[in-house]
Amino acid sequence: MMPAMSSELCFTPAVELARLIRNREISATEVMSAFIERIHEVNPRVNAICTFIGEEEAMRLAKEADAREPLGPLHGLPHAVKDLVITRGIRTTFGSLIYKDFVPQQDGLIVERLKKAGALIIGKTNTPEFGAGSQTFNKVFGV
Question: Given a cut of 50, is residue 4 above it in pLDDT?
Answer without folding.
Answer: no
